[in-house]
Amino acid sequence: MTATLPPPERPEIDAIVEMIIYLYTESRRLTKGMASGFGLTGPQLTILKLLESFQDLSLSTLSERIRAQNSTVTGIVDRMEREGLVRRERSKADRRVVHIRLSEKGARLARDIQVEPMEIFRSALLSLSSTDLRDLLRILTKLQRQVVSRVGQGGQKKSDGDGT
């Protein structure tokens, strides 16, 4: 029986993982705190600000943008629609497609929320040089591809072929 050896010591990898977890956790904390001040959940705030930026999005595009399953986003949008924040409209080009748009009430609320957690990260990124931004994007894209290849697009761990 062969024992699996632990990965070699790589303190820089641990530091990077800790930074990624910190940034993720901090963005969720900021979103949740800001959202609750307006009577929203974090995902509702994210959807509100996305729709403010893009005017309308299909449910599947919205799901992709917030990295959630369609069924999860459907539930969030259902609640937002009941609260009068969004409305659904069938696409004129393809009747199977439903677009989600802000209602007047939702648009007003989106305008009232001046600072969003994404803006904190955007302003921090503005402090980087163009070269650093390109390098960071290139590295993060490679990292994303590696993660997706290991766990799959939907977050489910990929089977390694032995039934697990």
The structural class is mainly alpha
Order of helices and strands: HHEHHEEHHH
What general outline do the C-alpha atoms trace? globular
CATH superfamily annotation of the domain at 37-114: Winged helix-like DNA-binding domain superfamily/Winged helix DNA-binding domain
Helicity range: 55-70%
Strand order of the largest sheet: 1-3-2
Can you name the CATH architecture of the domain at 37-114?
Orthogonal Bundle
Number of helices: 7
CATH class of the domain at 37-114: Mainly Alpha
- Contiguous uncertain segments of 5+ residues: 159-164
Rounded to an integer in angstroms, the radius of gyration calculated over CA atoms is 20 Å
Measure the end-to-end span.
20 Å
Q: How many strands appear in the DSSP assignment?
A: 3
Q: How would you sum up the major sheet?
A: 3 strands, antiparallel
State the CATH topology of the domain at 37-114.
Arc Repressor Mutant, subunit A
Residues in β-strands, percent: 5-15%
Mean pLDDT: 86
Domain HTH marR-type: 1-145
Protein name: MarR family transcriptional regulator
GO molecular function: DNA binding; DNA-binding transcription factor activity
Keywords: DNA-binding, Transcription, Transcription regulation
